[in-house]
Amino acid sequence: MPLKSKQPRIAPLEPPFDAGTAEVLDRLGPPIGLFRVWARRPALARGVADWGRYYFSRQSALTVRQRELVIDRTTALCGAAYEWGVHLATFAEKAGLRDDQIRSLAAGGPADECWDASDRAVLKAVDELHATHDLADGTWADLTNAVGDDGALDVLLVCGWYHAISFTVRALRLPLEPGTTGPNSP
């Protein structure tokens, strides 16, 4: 595990924001630290915003719950406390996640009793992708039975994207956002 610094390696922009920065931050969402780092490079921020606009819309083949299972489990497995905290604070209630399920996402597994078959299939796929960078035929079959072919494609992409996000927030040493906790917090 890398040494933790008290300051982010790339400082997020601070207000007041110029018009261009304000425009890209509006596209990204609330001006959290990660978004303010991306906003240092407006073209990057716009590209990320367009990607996120799809996955956080009704166009995605995944439900909010399925998407958040992928994101929360991926960020927990990657030790990305910053991103875990942001997503739990913002989406746990919308995704219908109970306390026992949140604990399982952080430190349990797909076989935990709190999951139904559909949730279990998604979580097993995330765990397997994280461990092997691939899916066994049985895992693929369970996943497509749970979310369909289009949903399976979205699971692969969201899982991969949140590995990249996890790498980013960890390597940047971003501190937790106010009011959030990491996956191993009480």
From TrEMBL:
| Pfam families according to UniProt | CMD (PF02627)
Tell me the superkingdom of the source: Bacteria
InterPro entries, sorted: AhpD-like (IPR029032), CMD-like (IPR003779)
Q: Which residues form a coiled coil?
A: none
- Cite the GO molecular-function annotations of the record: peroxiredoxin activity
Membrane-crossing residue ranges in chain numbering: none
The Carboxymuconolactone decarboxylase-like domain is annotated at: 42-126
Descriptive protein name? Carboxymuconolactone decarboxylase family protein
